[in-house]
C-alpha cells in the first residue's frame, strides 16, 4: 500500500501529464482539467490490469460447486449475512472498545482524507478551485506531502511489530492517535498563521509550506497503525470465539464505513456553519482522534508478546 501510494501521489504532484497525453487538452478542458483527465486514464489502465491479474491468478471455485448445489450455496451466502449482524451479540467488552476506538479514529481520519489537498490549496496557498494558479499549485504540493506521508507509512510498517511487542498493540495504537490529534492541531495553527498574512494573491512563505508538508509527512506514522493494528487486535480476540477471520473483518469494517458516511454527510454543512474552510472538520477530527487515543491507552488491555526464542 505504501509503495502504491507513493507512486500514485507522485503522479498527482506531476503537472505535465497533458504533454504526455496531448489529446486531453481541449478548448473545453484547460491544463488542470487535462492533468486530472490523464490521471483518470492512468487509473483505468491500472484497474484493468490488476483486475485481469486477479481473475487469472486466483484459481477459485464457485461456492455452489463446493457445496454440491446452487441452492446450498445461496443458503450459505444468506447465512453469512445473518451471522455478520448476529455476531454483535457474542462480542466481548474488549472488542466493543476496539470497535469504538476504530470508529473514533476514522472520524479523525476522514476529514483529512477528504480535504487534505483542498486544505493545502485553499488555506495555505490562498486559492480557490476556479482561480487557477495558486489553488492548482497548492493541490500539487498537497500531493507531494501525501507522497512523503506514504514514505513514512512504509518505514513505520517495518518497525510496527517491534513497537507493538514492546509497548503493547493497544497502547501503541493509542499513542499514534494522540500524535495524530497533535498534528491536526498543528495544521489548524499553521492555517491560522497563514490566514493572518496579507500576501496580495502571492504564494505563501517557504516556512509555511514546509510546515504544512511536515504535518502531512508525520501523519504517515499514525496512518500505518490505523491500517494494521485494529485488524490484528480484533482478529486475535474474535478468533477465540470461533467466528472466523472473514467475519471479524466484516465486523470491523462496519466501524469504519459508518463513521465515513457520517463525516461525508456532515463535514460540508459543519464547515459552512463556521464560515467555510476546512478548519472546523479538522478540529472535529483532532477531538475524535484524541478521544480514541485516550480510550485505547486506558481501556484496551496492555499485553506484550515476547518473541519466542529458537534453541539450536
From TrEMBL:
Protein name: Uncharacterized protein
Membrane topology: Multi-pass membrane protein
GO molecular function: sucrose:proton symporter activity
Compartment(s): Membrane
Lineage: Eukaryota, Viridiplantae, Streptophyta, Embryophyta, Tracheophyta
Keywords: Membrane, Sugar transport, Symport, Transmembrane, Transmembrane helix, Transport
Family: Belongs to the major facilitator superfamily. Phosphate:H(+) symporter (TC 2.A.1.9) family.
UniProt pathway annotation: Glycan biosynthesis; sucrose metabolism
Main location class: membrane
Species whose genome carries this gene: Salvia splendens
Positions of transmembrane segments: 6-26, 38-58, 94-115, 170-193, 208-234, 246-267, 279-300
InterPro entries for this protein: MFS_trans_sf
GO cellular component, one term: vacuole
Amino acid at each position: 500500500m505504501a509503495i502504491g501510494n507513493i507512486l500514485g501521489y507522485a503522479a498527482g504532484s506531476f503537472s505535465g501529464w497533458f504533454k504526455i497525453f496531448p489529446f486531453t487538452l481541449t478548448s473545453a478542458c484547460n491544463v488542470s482539467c487535462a492533468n486530472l483527465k490523464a490521471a483518470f486514464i492512468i487509473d483505468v489502465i491500472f484497474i484493468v490490469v490488476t483486475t485481469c491479474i486477479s481473475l487469472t491468478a486466483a484459481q477459485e471455485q464457485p461456492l455452489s460447486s463446493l457445496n454440491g448445489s446452487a441452492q446450498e450455496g445461496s443458503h450459505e451466502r444468506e447465512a453469512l449475512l445473518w451471522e455478520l449482524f448476529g455476531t454483535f451479540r457474542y462480542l466481548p467488552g474488549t472488542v466493543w472498545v476496539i470497535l469504538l476506538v476504530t470508529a473514533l479514529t476514522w472520524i479523525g481520519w476522514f476529514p483529512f482524507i477528504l480535504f487534505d489537498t483542498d486544505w493545502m490549496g485553499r488555506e495555505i496557498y490562498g486559492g480557490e478551485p476556479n482561480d487557477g494558479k495558486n489553488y492548482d499549485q497548492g493541490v500539487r504540493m498537497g500531493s507531494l506531502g501525501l507522497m512523503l506521508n506514504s514514505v513514512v507509512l512504509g518505514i513505520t510498517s517495518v518497525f510496527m511489530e517491534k513497537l507493538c511487542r514492546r509497548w503493547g498493540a493497544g497502547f501503541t495504537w493509542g499513542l499514534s492517535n494522540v500524535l495524530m490529534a497533535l498534528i491536526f492541531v498543528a495544521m489548524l495553527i499553521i492555517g491560522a498563521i497563514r490566514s493572518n498574512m496579507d500576501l496580495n494573491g502571492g504564494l505563501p512563505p517557504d516556512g509555511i509550506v514546509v510546515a504544512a508538508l511536515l504535518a502531512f509527512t508525520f501523519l504517515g506514522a499514525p496512518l500505518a497503525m490505523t491500517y494494521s493494528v485494529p485488524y490484528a487486535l480484533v482478529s486475535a480476540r474474535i478468533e477465540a470465539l470461533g467466528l472466523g477471520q472473514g467475519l471479524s473483518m466484516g465486523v470491523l469494517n462496519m466501524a469504519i464505513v459508518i463513521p465515513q458516511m457520517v463525516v461525508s454527510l456532515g463535514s460540508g454543512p459543519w464547515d459552512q456553519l463556521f464560515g467555510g474552510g476546512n478548519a472546523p472538520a479538522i478540529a472535529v477530527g483532532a477531538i475524535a482522534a484524541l478521544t480514541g487515543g485516550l480510550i485505547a491507552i486506558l481501556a484496551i488491555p496492555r499485553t506484550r508478546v515476547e518473541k519466542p526464542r529458537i534453541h539450536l
